[in-house]
Design brief:
294 residues, mainly alpha, hpI Integrase, Chain A, 2 domains, three-stranded antiparallel beta sheet, flat
Length: 294
């Protein structure tokens, strides 16, 4: 153990990097090794701590950029079928749990509470979650969304993202609600008394909910649906954009639907998902030459 030197650590690091291990994995492993040796030194098992001042080699700027890009690609992806099924299952079980808790409350001393068995959605997070999945709206935009912006009569969503309100000529998210999310939001609108204005997801007092209000119910939905606890709610937005890109929607149109002013961000972070048309184009070109149409 005392024979370990700086060069040994760096050689080990280089070998691990060649095998494709991530920087985070290396850091965790090395931290565990250093802790073990320090413990041995503190307990007088060894007379010196050879790794006390030894650090992992700094990652090169280009390698760091590539690593970060790879990590972002892992995040900016489509949700799997299993994950989508887990979300649906989690929301159903969450609704059942909320209703069951309300029945118990009404039965044991609080009969004045509304009967949640008589409404479509026993909790605001259910339509909130579905709207995020179908529109790709950021959580902050869902919290500030109004019934004027989500026009049920015209079946349209028309909103300026909060993130771009400060810029000149900010982009707008504007599109017709699809045939799956529209009836869900119509039911939520009717459940709330068919309001003409006001927040779509207000607090009990009618004010705007805290922008972290979705975290607790989302954690519960993940647990009930058997989802990875690390799955971020923002994954809905990544899924929305990724699905559009993989379906071959032009990147500028994707940008507009996602509330971006240009396609630059979409191209940078999602272009790897875009289906290539090169083979098809080259075949068409070759056929035209063969037919003398070039």
């Amino acid at each position: 153990m005392l024979s370990i030197e700086k060069d040994d650590i760096h050689a080990w690091q280089k070998d691990c990097e060649k095998k494709g291990l991530s920087r985070a994995t290396l850091a965790r492993s090395y931290s565990a090794l250093k802790s073990m040796i320090k413990q041995a030194y503190d307990n007088n098992v060894i007379q010196d701590n050879p790794l006390k001042h030894v650090k992992l080699s700094e990652i090169k700027a280009q390698e760091k950029k590539q690593s970060e890009s790879a990590d972002k690609r892992k995040i900016r992806r489509l949700l799997t079928r299993k994950e989508l099924q887990g979300i649906s299952k989690g929301l159903t079980l969450f609704a059942d749990e909320v209703r069951r808790q309300r029945r118990n409350s009404r039965k044991h001393g609080k009969p004045e509470l509304p009967d949640l068995d008589q409404v479509v959605y026993p909790h605001w997070f259910i339509p909130f979650c579905n709207l995020a999945l179908h529109t790709g709206l950021r959580p902050g935009d869902l919290y500030t969304l109004t019934w004027v912006e989500l026009n049920i009569n015209f079946k349209r969503l028309d909103k300026t993202p909060e993130k771009t309100l400060h810029v000149e000529n900010p982009p707008r998210v504007s599109f017709k609600l699809n045939n799956v999310i529209y009836p869900m939001m119509r039911d939520w609108w009717e459940q709330n008394g068919k309001p003409l204005d006001g927040l779509v997801f207000p607090s009990r007092t009618g004010d705007q909910l805290d922008k972290k209000s979705h975290i607790k119910p989302w954690s519960k939905v993940k647990r009930l649906g058997g989802l990875d606890s690390n799955l971020n709610f923002y994954s809905f937005r990544h899924h929305f954009i990724s699905r559009l890109v993989t379906n071959g929607v032009p990147l500028l149109d994707v940008a507009r639907l996602a509330g971006h002013k240009s396609a630059a961000m979409i191209e940078t972070h999602y272009h790897h998902l875009s289906p290539t048309k090169a083979d098809e184009v080259m075949q068409t070109y070759g056929d035209s030459l063969a037919e003398g149409k070039a």
